[in-house]
Amino acid sequence: MEVEFTVLSDRREGLLRELGNLIIHSGFSLVRQRMSTIESGVQLWLRVSGREDRLLELEERLGSHPLVLSFESEHQVTDGPAAPVAPAAKPVMPKRPPQGVGRSLQGGRGAGPAVGQIEAELPGLAQDYPRIFPRLLSMQGKLPEGQKSPSMEFAGRRVGAWVYKRDYALGGKLDLSGALKHIALPAMRNLLSTDLKENSLRVKNNPLCMPGSHCRNGEFFCGFLRGLLDESGVGGQVTVREIYCRSDGAEDCVFEIVN
């Protein structure tokens, strides 16, 4: 598939190089580009080609890149004539004011995350961080049935990537064990009481998984840890799963991380 992105940035120098490398590392190729200076900064138009199943990953990386203030995307671009598609404005979780609110990119498919709903909540999550659980619980209650799990995981990944860039990006590259000790553990402790044992994080009093509810709502933390660790550059793709949950009667929620 081919996709067009319109990116807004406040810096011209190195922008195309940085985003070109990001596009390639996300499994896409750059077809053509155009850059122009506008009143609010620099606008970069990109047309890229790649696999549809890697598109969400590319959009997440664009959304959390420090040079990107906001971007719009137009999906399913073809070489033949087609009806125009309204672009979806995508905010970031920056230290600067958010630039817009996106809408769902899944076209109503129940299996995917409600991207637009989550994107609309990201500026508020950034403002409230680390006291984000009231907003998370409210957001979770508004999500469509069938999209709660992927949406919470998507939200976690966006927040985790943002936290890494805000708090840990200036550190040296670590292996998984070091990243768990020096990045994942302190980041989780900003949210809840957490202990680390080997490659597992034990989270106490998780308000997303209430005792007896049998809900297993660990997706946010699975995404949060993936966002943190993927951004840290640990070797290989990180997998996070909840192996014990207090909603099922366990004392604490336990998340196992492997790569």
UniProtKB/TrEMBL annotation:
Residues 81-92 have a biased composition (Low complexity). It comes from the Bacteria. Residues 78-113 are annotated as: Disordered. Gene3D superfamilies: Trafficking protein particle complex subunit 3 (3.30.1380.20). This is 4-vinyl reductase 4VR domain-containing protein. The lineage of its organism: Bacteria, Pseudomonadati, Pseudomonadota, Gammaproteobacteria, Cellvibrionales.
